[in-house]
Amino acid sequence: MKVLVTGAAGQVGSRLVRQLLARNYEVRGTLLPDDPAKERVAGLGLDLLEGDLTDLAFVRRAVAGVDAVIHTANLVGPYFENNVQTTLQLTRACGEAADRLDRFIYVSSSGVFPNDSHVLAPVYHPVDEDHPKRATSEYNLSKLVGEQLTELAARRTGLRTVIVRPSHVLSGERILQQFTVQRVVGVLRSGQQNKGSELYLPDGTELWPQVEAAAEDPLQPCSVTDLDGRPWYYQPNDARDVAHGLVCALERAEALGESFNLGAPEPFLFPQGARLLAELTGRPPLEIKLPVRWRYDHAIGKAKGWIGYTPKGDLETMMRSAWRCRGGDYVDLDWQ
């Protein structure tokens, strides 16, 4: 079976192609012209095509001769037009080949709900596949439009599709930044700037100055609970686990026509994350109680039960992997 992976050198794509090759798939990948991340997939024996995914002619060439397509390519940030156009051209080309393609897998985002409670309070916790979709940024809207284009292609052409929604995707050292004073301050600022968030205080109280004043510096580990002692929590997604989830979506018949949330095995509690970061850095954590509680979660029971998603990226695994990356002698492209 030959699989096309768009964005093969990206954060998820570079890990996905390795997992596919390890399972004896033939893999074709697309890259941006002169992609600066091309070295991530150098020497793997991929069938690599460089081009612009907003060009339908290029996309048709990329889809020709493959059995399945996994669309990971996207630009994070204010790139609405690019993200929508790439998905539009891929659904057009895959729709034309619907009679021979096994499936088209679209990588969306938990931002379509969103599960960012510091921006907009979820309707309920944990956020599952049935949660209302209410995009709050151009990026999130581009992913929601991509889902709709995928569903449209399925209805119009019979294309077999799967939609996968990772939560906050992390690789390298990035999780080490998540349990710091700097991160807590950023969440509090955002929460007070967004009246619909779970952290907004109607009386205008700004909480982050007290956190900054109590801290040694922005990178100090930070353990946060609310006034009742309930911990803040956060459920990101290791990029290697996202790749694993996409392999599951490719291999299981149960995935067809469905959507699946992906995330860490369980939400990470801030006191635990801060303690681990303190152990790794040798710095005592700032322990603070606040009259608000940040909750970022993503229910993954459907992916676990239906398609065999078994994420390895628990809190300690991700933190220690990130610390190895910081040491400079390790790149987390696979779980070895």
What attributes does this structure have?
single chain; alpha/beta; 2 domains; 336 residues
Number of helices: 10
Arithmetic mean of pLDDT: 97
Shape: globular
Biggest sheet character: 7 strands, parallel
Q: Give the CATH level 1 class of the largest domain.
A: Alpha Beta
The CATH superfamily of the largest domain appears as NAD(P)-binding Rossmann-like Domain
Q: Write the CATH fold name of the largest domain.
A: Rossmann fold
Oligomer: single chain
Given as residue ranges, the uncertain stretches (5+ residues, pLDDT < 50) are none
In percent terms, what proportion of residues is strand? Answer: 15-25%
For the secondary structure, the number of strands is 14
Rg to the nearest angstrom?
A: 20 Å
Give the distance, in angstroms, between the N- and C-terminal Cα atoms.
25 Å
Helix content: 25-40%
Secondary structural class: alpha/beta
CATH architecture of the largest domain: 3-Layer(aba) Sandwich
Strand order of the largest sheet: 3-2-1-4-5-6-11
- Output the helix-strand order: EHEEHEHEHEEHHEEEHEEHEEHH
